[in-house]
Specification:
7-stranded antiparallel beta sheet; 1 helix; binds fe (ii) ion; 5% helix; 5-stranded antiparallel beta sheet; Jelly Rolls
Length: 201
Amino acid sequence: MFNPVDSELHYKVLEHLPKIPPHLYAGSWLGKEHYTYSQNISFAYSTQTKVSPVIITNDINSPELMEWLRQNIDTNLPSVLYRKVLASSDQNFYPPHIDVRRNFALMYNLSDTGGDVVIWKEKGRPMIQQGQTLPVGAPKLFNDYSVLEEVHRFSPPVHTWYIINSQCIHSVEDIKGIREGIHISCGAYSPHVKALNPALV
Ligand SMILES: [Fe+2]
């Protein structure tokens, strides 16, 4: 039986989805007026050998951008986040983790500094762990790369939608500078998730 958090593919670049019109964000960056400061959540992780950059997550505060997303990408728009990673040359990764609040993440990089998205497997464990080895809702970070094996690595093109199964362990490596993107949560029955399950289409 199909497990709704499982998927045949672990990621896919969705070239067919429309690009966000640039006038909905400011130049090549999302303008400060387009996201909220009030819910600014900043944090940094540490791994055993390196320190990650500060990561800022905000709600989007632009009715025009939200309306465009609703009309062109997902009528439901369960959750849309703006995420900024303040990467520098020696803090240039987003550590391996499993998402807590979403099964699938539809993402759009606003900067061309995004680096490589890497999907990992914990050695000796299944690719998808939620509901099998993790309590639901428990955050899961991996600060020891030696327990992980790399399964996929890809460089999402800027201004292009891509989706990942975010119940797989994933990280971003080799970020080239400040990384900005828009992230939409997708449930198992989002139309975009079908792209990860071609056998079901
Ligand atoms: Fe994630």
